[in-house]
From TrEMBL:
Domain Glutamate/phenylalanine/leucine/valine/L-tryptophan dehydrogenase C-terminal as annotated: residue spans: 181-408
One GO MF term: glutamate dehydrogenase (NAD+) activity
Organismal lineage: Bacteria, Pseudomonadati, Bacteroidota, Flavobacteriia, Flavobacteriales
Name of protein: Glutamate dehydrogenase/leucine dehydrogenase
UniProt family annotation: Belongs to the Glu/Leu/Phe/Val dehydrogenases family.
One Pfam family hit: ELFV_dehydrog_N
Example of a GO biological process term: L-glutamate catabolic process
Classification via SUPFAM superfamilies: Aminoacid dehydrogenase-like, N-terminal domain, NAD(P)-binding Rossmann-fold domains
Keyword line: Oxidoreductase
The organism of origin for this protein: Leeuwenhoekiella marinoflava
Kinase in keyword set: no
């Protein structure tokens, strides 16, 4: 596996598109790691300090993810080095998408990512640049449909991603009009933990759980885990955190979900970050869901959790461990050898799977069909890993080997 991984990580991407904004200091890159299957896909992110290497590593991560979620295409990513709080953001995005529109028409599909919203920014701005849909390049490069079929499938994709959830089994509050895109990634993180116990043995019900990050992914993961009977005993967010070693009730977690402001945890008894960061890793915990930014989780934190009974990590963040390596650094390897680590490309593949699902011919558009498809995709990946290695350790190592054998 290490040899495969080294060859994959060190191989130069096929295409690197570099852009300097003529009106601001913004700088951007689209990295196409490969045109496997004739196309590549990956979202657009924006943050101050982002660089070319970050975009390359994310493009390679997407390619591994597509081995699970489908379609069988190459990985890509777009990144813009610019402060997303700057009032000039909209203009930067407009010029960026105008510049990359030829790629988006031909062989590259994009979507929302960190600080760039799929529904309110990516879709309308790419349309202004003459792109039918941000995934049009995947249709043209990979599926090569007839014009009529392309129109039908793009219509299905447009409708599906922004579909408002109507089923109370999937929406915390149907009156708030949460969409598939709002909830599906966190749902997948929760389902990964459930399927782990179903396949490797045990039950999710009653398992003490810590959530890191309470944004789009972490809040939804907490909601669905609590819905299935897990006990959320701790939440840590940039704003602070909460601890209840007896476990918050499902209603309490639902209320926290509904009370969050954007991607920020809001609570009357919020513990300051410094204080909660000292305590939370020592709580007796069986499930850990890191759903904050990449590369935050240290080996000391992991070792403390293992000593407190940690069993499984369901990764909501891409590369949650504080390693410099793209995928499988020493902290992740250390952790994978001691507890069950469901890698990010399986557990957080929900949005990638939704795109793949809606690209298929005439799929069912119900909440149940969409969410069950993501759940089944994650279940199949964990089952395939189990078939290669039924031991509860080195799950990530096995899953990477399965993926890399398709790519190298």
């Amino acid at each position: 596996m290490k040899d495969l991984l080294n060859r994959y990580e060190t191989k130069e991407p096929e295409i690197v598109f570099h852009w300097n904004d003529p009106e601001t200091e913004a700088e951007g890159w689209t990295v196409i790691n490969s045109l496997r299957g004739g196309a590549a896909g990956g979202g657009t992110r924006m943050r101050k300090g982002l660089d070319r290497n970050e975009v390359i590593s994310l493009a390679k991560t997407m390619e591994v993810k597509f081995t699970v979620s489908g379609p069988a295409i190459g990985g890509a990513k777009s990144g813009i080095n610019f402060d997303p709080a700057d009032p000039r953001k909209k203009g930067v995005l407009e010029r960026w998408y105008a510049a990359v529109s030829p790629l988006l028409k031909s062989y590259y599909g994009t979507g929302g990512d960190l600080n760039v919203d799929e529904i309110h920014e990516v879709i309308p701005i790419t349309e202004e640049s003459g792109v039918w849909h941000p995934q049009e390049g995947v249709f043209n490069g990979h599926f090569r449909p007839t014009e009529a079929d392309k129109i039908n499938r793009i219509g299905q994709l447009r409708q599906g991603v922004i579909k408002v959830l109507e089923n109370t089994a999937y929406s915390p509050d149907v009156s708030r009009k949460y969409t598939v895109a709002d909830m599906i990634t966190g749902y997948g993180v929760a389902e990964a933990a459930r399927h782990f116990y179903d396949i490797y043995g045990g039950s999710l019900a009653g398992k003490r759980t810590v959530i890191q990050g309470f944004g789009n992914v972490g809040a939804a993961a907490a909601y669905y885990l609590a819905q299935q009977g897990a006990k959320i005993v701790g939440i840590i967010d940039a704003a602070g955190g909460l601890i209840d070693e007896a476990g918050f009730s499902f209603e309490e977690i639902k209320d926290l979900f509904l009370a969050k402001e954007g991607n920020t945890l809001v609570a009357s008894k919020l513990i300051p970050f410094e204080e909660v960061n000292k305590k939370i890793w020592e709580i007796k915990t069986e499930i850990f869901a890191p759903c904050a930014a990449s590369r935050l989780v240290t080996q000391a934190q992991i070792d403390t959790m293992i000593a407190a009974g940690l069993e499984v990590i369901s990764c909501g963040a891409n590369v949650p461990f504080a390693d410099k390596e793209i995928f499988f650094g020493p902290i992740m390897e250390h952790t994978d050898a001691r507890v069950s680590v469901i890698p990010d490309f399986i557990s957080n593949c929900g949005m990638a799977r939704v795109f793949a699902y809606f690209m298929e011919r005439r799929v069912q558009m119900t909440d149940e069909a969409i969410f069950n498809d993501t759940s089944q995709t994650i279940k199949n990946a964990i089952q395939n890993t189990y078939n290669h290695n039924s031991n509860k350790n080195n799950i990530s190592k096995t899953a990477f080997e399965i993926a890399l054998q398709q790519l190298v």
